[in-house]
Amino acid sequence: DHLKKYFPITGGVLQRTVGNVKAVDDISFKIHRGESFGLVGESGCGKSTVGRTILRLLEKTSGTVLYKGQDIHGLSRNSMRSLRPKMQIVFQDPYSSLNPRIKVGEAIGEALLDHGLVDRKDLKDKVIETLKICGLAHYHYDRYPHEFSGGQRQRIGIARALILNPEFVVADEPVSALDVSIQAQIINLLSDLQQDKHLTYMFISHDLSVVKHLCTRIGVMYLGSMVEMGSKDELFRNPLHPYTKALLSAIPIPDPTLKRERIVLKGDIPSPANPPSGCKFHTRCPVATDLCKEQVPEYRDMGGNHFVACHLV
Ligand code: SF4
Ligand code: MG
């Protein structure tokens, strides 16, 4: 609710704060139990920061994060620690968070021991069970991270999150580093796990065609703000924000009789330390007017749980 996460920029000899990177700049949304909420936008728009802040892996700047009604940024260290297994994250590159000298089985079991969720004698069985659920084999327990392919490493990353028996999982670009053929396998795994374990997901991706397969609702972020949100069907059928339209137009359509004009956005995403005035998208928007440079568009409910922030809608 009105979540902000700013990172201070320091400068000069005294390292005073000279500005802020407004990574997340006042966004509000809900994720319902059992759903898969997709958060999309170009890299650098603040998606990962949202993911980490709602899990309290990062402290917020302001706003509130409620998890089942509980203000998690107000919890003590101990209460947060006991809640931690319930809310897990899967990273884009699990390899970077695996110690190359620790056997994969031990790395997966570590958190379980840490949280005191298992007796040491049952640990290995539990890890092997989780490896299998994630499409790996019992003999992988004793292997080292470098012995695995990209897709297998992502299975390890998922196993590490899953072994804690979470309710809510943030998947931060979990397939972006993988070959397209492997992407589908990992998406299917995540989808199966969701059904079997009744998981709730927030699935972060810069690729709308990836969230299309997994998500029921989608939020579109641009430069720290939520610019559009709605059900997947609504968003794909009736995108309202010019930015969403541009993102959608970049997805190839398999049917050659259907024509969709590709909207190419000019320029790069501006710096979140110095965002454009008015509508932050105005420097790249193909239909911007003078008003857009001056006034911040209100984030409005268009009915049917479809929200959008644009003067022209
Ligand atoms: Fe484009 Fe203006 Fe709408 Fe922003 S408010 S998306 S600049 S038309
Ligand atoms: Mg990211």
TrEMBL record:
The keyword ATP-binding applies. Residues 1-248 form the ABC transporter domain. InterPro entries: AAA+_ATPase, ABC_transp_ATP-bind, ABC_transporter-like_ATP-bd, ABC_transporter-like_CS, Oligopep_ABC_C, P-loop_NTPase. SMART domains: AAA (SM00382). Keywords: ATP-binding, Nucleotide-binding, Transport. It comes from the Bacteria. The keyword Nucleotide-binding applies. Belongs to the ABC transporter superfamily. This is Peptide/nickel transport system ATP-binding protein.
